[in-house]
Request: fold
Amino acid sequence: MEGGFIAMPTDVILWILGGLILISAVMSLALRNLIHCALFLMVCFLGLAGLYLHLNAVFSGLVQALVYVGAVGIILIFAILLTEGGGTETGSHLGSQWRTGIGLAVLLAFALLGAVSNSPQTTQAARHTEEPTVREIGLKLMTDYLLPLQTIGLLLTAAAIGAVVLAMQEPKPRKDETP
Amino acid sequence: MVPRVILGGGIVKGMIETARNFVGSYTDASRLTTVEYPEQRIPLHANARQFPFLVFDGTDPMAGLRCVACQICEKECPPQCIYIIKDSVKKPDYLGKMQMQPKVFDIDLSVCMSCQICVEVCPFDAIKMDTEFELSNDDRFAGLLVNKHQLAKPNSHFARIHPAEAAEVDGRLAAEKAKAEAKARADAEAKAKAAATSPPPAGNPSSSPPPKS
Amino acid sequence: MEPLKGLLSTLWKALTDQPDPKAPFLESIPEDYRSLASAVLSVAPILMVFPLLFALTTVLERKGLGRIQNRLGPNRVGPAGFLQFAADGLKTLTKEDVVPRAADRVVHFLAPIALVIPVLLTFAVLPFGRNLAPIDLDAGLLFFFAVSSATELAVFMAGWASRNKYSLLGALRAVAQMVSYEIPLVLAALSVVMITGTLSLSAIAAAQSPTPGSFLAPWYVFTPWGLMGFLLFMIAACAEANRSPFDLPEGESEIIAGYYLEYSGFKFALFFLGEYLGLFASSGLAITLFLGGWNAPFAFMQGWLPSWVWFFAKLATLIAVFIWIRGTLPRVRMDQLMGLAWKFMIPMTLLTLVAAGLWHRLPSAPLRWVACTALLAGAFLVLGRVLMPRTRHGRRVYRYAD
Ligand code: SF4
Ligand code: SF4
Reply:
């Protein structure tokens, strides 16, 4: 799958995807309707998945689509609908803590820039771009990265159980109400 | 009831039943009861009734119409869908008596509720229920107002759709006619006898007045 | 003339199972257009075959349901009613497209498209025949699930953008149902991945080819864990496709038509199409994973028919079973639906994974047969006993009435 089906310069695809991601990210912040924001966030996630696929990271791309669009997005939408109610226009674009937010964003941008520019992938001249197969990723996860994987799994399980416990708190039926 | 022991047992049972229906619809007529209506028809019920029609005797619909425009049906019809105007010209009925006749006899098909009350109240057996049910029309105003020419149907039609009732009516009418004829004959005889016993009035010896009918 | 000859030769090669069917056509056209032509060659047959299959299925489904209910079904349009789909299609195409005034027009417009496109994309990785996989992706199974998870979003978009409470309720039901049943769906598929050790659907199908000396093909459905996995996969696929008896999202009796209530004309037809194509895609995946893909059931039959004929024969069988189920089972309740997913499907799929692991580890044939069968059958019986509704009914209490 080199360069997609249509012989198009790699840079063009990169620019299109980048533009899509950026525009949808901005829209997901700028729009007033929460559901529209969430939908644009999905577009952003899909654009990222496309970017991964374009960069030959098939596994990451597909998992990005599966997890972020399929699961996280749906949870987000459920959360919006079950709390604020979808379709309500929020008041101001800026929250009360927008200064802190911008500060954090700038910090994060610097951290990421630093990480990217110091990474061996960019400093070394020879970049190995061959695609790691799913099998290799699986083997790595089950050997070298077993402990982090299990820890994350435990964390998520705990979170799931906690959510169930929270959701199960129903008012106890009265004495005369034997079910 | 059979206790359901295995999860999904009821599902399997249901699937078998529907499979039997499916296969049976090809082999067993009782499992495919659809009548394909315009091509296939089931015989109508003996007392089927749909919409009234006017019975006429003989061959000329208008001359043989039994209706005497008495307007009883018009008054009795619950939704008031019959509309009658009497004609100024009389015509003889089956007994030869001069009777009124309708100039206009309309029934509104869209209003008629097939209650058969007009039939029950008619003293002259002039209006009966038809079994024709394909009455749709592409003109929802004029097309649904049925006039007396469309309403008039021969007695043979009545005999075909409701044989038992028609036979009964025919018998009654024939008996009445026979009685009337016998009475007329008796009257004529009585008159003849009277004429024979008493001398005819002077000045008019040869021609007797026609019997009043 | 050259390209036409190449196209015919490509078609012939594709229909007769020869390797690399695209080559003759691609060689006949200029170098620059080859990758584009290759894509078109992959996409066009899918776009032709599956909508046609959808059209045929709608007619056959109505006829079959009719027979199941002692009726005849459609039999007026065309020979024996088989052109009914053309009449239906024309009707939906010419109908007025009504958009509610309060609707979110853009999202309302995008939703049916967002439903059909991912569903069509899932066909890209299914191996329809020995050399007929549109894209032979290393992570094909992952691709399938990743792409089909986008349909949930489309359903939600449809329900929310219509600004109708029934639409929204239907969409929430649909999304909750799809999220719940995606877990058993993926877990059931995972058992096959554990055995074959690959996510490539072509490789999974090829792994079920009969070996020359044997009699029965080694389809995974012929093993205890495979049979259980297949059944669970089909139940989950049925729920994923919102098909009867899991068609609560469109429950006419309570929420009218659910998320596509406010759609008319061609957009409604697109939803219909998307639903059926989703069903075909899940059935195709089930065939690839458990029913041997394009392989014949017995070794001696392997060369009798082209491989794609086997695939489509299995697909037709599965569709028939779906219709049969739809004609038999009443719609379940929401709590029954969720109970089935979380209390039965997920434990059973997890046990199926264990059984697949056992099957992989245990050396001798009789031992692993006994062990896997005992594990799964025992779990099935116990779970069935536990979940079976009790016949003891207490005094009925009306919580809110008095
Ligand atoms: S059948 Fe009933 S409604 Fe119809 S014309 Fe006669 S009396 Fe009126
Ligand atoms: S149909 Fe009968 S009741 Fe009606 S006007 Fe004629 S004679 Fe009278």
About this structure: Residues B 52, 77-79, 81-82, 107, 112-118 surround iron/sulfur cluster (ligand 1) (CB under 6 Å). The interface with chain A takes residues 32, 35-36, 38-39, 104, 107, 135, 137-139, 142-143, 145-147, 149-150, 152-153, 156-157, 160, 163, 168, 172, 175, 179, 182, 197-199, 394-395, 397, 399 of chain C (CB under 8 Å). The mean pLDDT of chain C is 83. The longest helix of chain C spans residues 34-68.
